[in-house]
Specification:
Mean pLDDT: 86
Helix content: over 70%
Shape: elongated
Number of helices: 8
Largest sheet: none
Strand content: under 5%
Oligomer: single chain
CATH class of the largest domain: Mainly Alpha
CATH superfamily of the largest domain: lambda repressor-like DNA-binding domains
Radius of gyration: 20 Å
Number of strands: 0
Distance between the termini: 50 Å
Length: 130
């Protein structure tokens, strides 16, 4: 049994919106829906979709399974947080992989010896801290 006794997805959704501290408009914008759609979900006139639950999970780290069905806990497990982070990094990598210069650099970096890689990381960190 979960910590909360929210039987309906719209009640769980309302809790998430409330906990965010954002207006309906700003919360909606953060997950790709309108203020009106937020209101409709809270009132029960509209369902929480799988796509919306995924967006909330990614943005607010709330377990999508809990959002949709009430199963489990609202907090993501460490495993789920790690999987989300891997998915985020992979998506960014796909974007970077489309730039030929960056793709070439990434390929070259993977071929570096460990000590050369560590030196490169130190140099990059020095530039980033400027």
């Amino acid at each position: 049994m979960n910590t909360f006794d929210f039987k309906l997805a719209n009640e769980r959704f309302f809790w998430i919106v409330s906990e965010s501290g954002l207006s309906y408009e700003n919360f909606g914008r953060s997950v790709g829906i309108t203020k009106g759609q937020v209101s409709n979900i809270i009132s029960g006139a509209r369902e929480v979709s799988e796509t919306l639950a995924i967006a909330i999970e990614n943005e607010y780290k709330v377990n999508r399974r809990w959002i949709l069905s009430g199963e489990g806990k609202p907090e993501l497990s460490e495993r789920d947080r790690n999987l989300n982070e891997i998915a985020r990094i992979t998506a960014q990598g796909r974007k970077l992989d489309q730039v030929p210069e960056i793709k070439h650099l990434l390929d070259a970096i993977t071929k570096l010896k460990k000590e050369d890689y560590n030196s490169l990381v130190l140099i990059i960190n020095k530039f980033v801290k400027k």
